[in-house]
Specification:
This protein has 127 residues and is an alpha+beta fold. The protein has two helices and five strands; from the N terminus they run ββαβββα.
Amino acid sequence: MTMFTPRQVSMGNKVYKLHIKHDAKKSSINIPPDHSIYQLKEIIHLEFKVKPENQILFCNGKLMDFSDYMTIKQAKIPNGSKIICNKLSKNSPPSSPSSKGSRMSLEKDETLAKLNQMEQKANDLEL
């Protein structure tokens, strides 16, 4: 008679693997899904030397705007996620992993200025 060990399915036995990137350095960490976001930030601090209060995290390209007390599972961070850690510098707002936002903002301002000029010319023609 062969005895089988039952499969453990409780949350405490599951471990997520997250892929973390900061600057050019990459690392993979194992963390239980019931750990808090702050505990994740502490692990990132140990690995990359960025203090938790200076971390801006992106999960799979989206800003992680969660409470530090929320668990990884509550934040809906899937196993195998890619986390990008940006360092918040003094006097600067949080930045996205890409710089498209500033260029798009400039293009939007230029387009708005052109529309205002066209509107002014149209108003001048009506008079």
